[in-house]
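If you are new to this repository, start here. Below is one unmodified record pulled from the training split, so you can see the exact layout before writing a loader.
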Amino acid sequence: MDEFSFIDSIKQHSYSQPSLVKGIGDDAAVFRTENDIITAVDTFVEDVHFSKETMEPFHIGYRALAANISDLAAMGALPAFYLVSIVIPKEWNQEQLIQIFDGMKKLAAEYKMDLIGGDTVSGSELTVSITVIGYTNRDKARYRSNAKPGDIVFATGTLGDSQAGFHILTNPGNFIEPEYFIERHRMPVPRVEFASNLKNLSRVALNDISDGIASEANEIADISNVKLTLNEACLPTSPDYDQFPLELQQQWKLYGGEDFELIGTVSVEDWEEVKKIAARTNTKLTKIGYVTETEGKGQVILQRSNKTDVVLEKKGYTHLK
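And here is the target side for that same chain:
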């Protein structure tokens, strides 16, 4: 299949977003809006971010778009559009490539996202780069710099599930509820509905947990110049998470990443409203700590179960390590 036939096979022939003026078919897409526009991009490389051994092509597309949508959720934005640039090696056939885009389309349909462009080239390893575009009400984007002393620190969902799923896929054996953990790895659920419903709050800091909660908490602490104290006993995990070795449990929930949950901070006065929003959007929500002033640079402290406090370093997945 040549490039133009491939593009024609994946492009949308009708669109969901009313703000779209022109989609695929010209040198660029056109849309207009009166809201603030939020955009993000992520790149995924075969055998670095995914492999055929643990994922079907459908899951590669689904998970890649989910990671990008999670970035929009962390900004309080509603997803609207996405663009896909893909480097295609000769080992990947037409059917597999279509399945990658089918995975994206499956998730995009849940948010009425439109595919509005991208690029296709040949290369030595499969690389998928996705740009997403979303909207927020004016001045309602959520920033990591919004944390203030006195805030409550919270997390959505459960931590460590994605790495547990990867472990199950790469270490065959007898596990409890393996399908749950595998799906959490392959098909994560971005917290769009929960985050977008926080729009009426005057202030909230958010960060998506893509590289592990230790890394994301430190990003909030650094840019807000505050101290986050996290209670280890309160970090949320799944009911069957304790089947794994304690060392791995600790590693995954703090540094594992790829759960695409949210960590955030909010004032004590607004905490009850956040809990109501979580209940209304069927989102598991856990208070995991609090924010205080810091001397010097931002810092994250972990209160361990044995009552000792340790500095939680900014470790986790790093792309250029």
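Two things worth knowing about this chain: The first strand starts at residue 20 and ends at 22. The chain has a mean pLDDT of 93.
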